Amino acid sequence: MLDTTPLTRAVEHFADRLRAAPQSRLQRGAAAEALGLARELALRAQLLEDPAGKPREMPDAGMFAAADQITVAGNDLAVVLTTEDEVVEAVRLVEEAQKRAGV
Hints:
By secondary structure, the protein is mainly alpha-helical.
């Protein structure tokens, strides 16, 4: 069984930082960065689950939902990953998005 703990930890850390961030930080781009990450993670999960299917884009549910959106998308992706390299790549995406978000 593949250990996806590094991904779920990275996602939870980013989500926790977003939840603790002031509204001004979210408005200055942290929430948009998180939404972009959530969309990317969701897209990857959908393509792994159904490569022939048409991916759906995660909607923008507002800046205060961004933490929940990356949590859901990250956990969905963790369930369908099949290799350690995929886990490492997903963790890299999360960590880079968190740096760009500044939280």
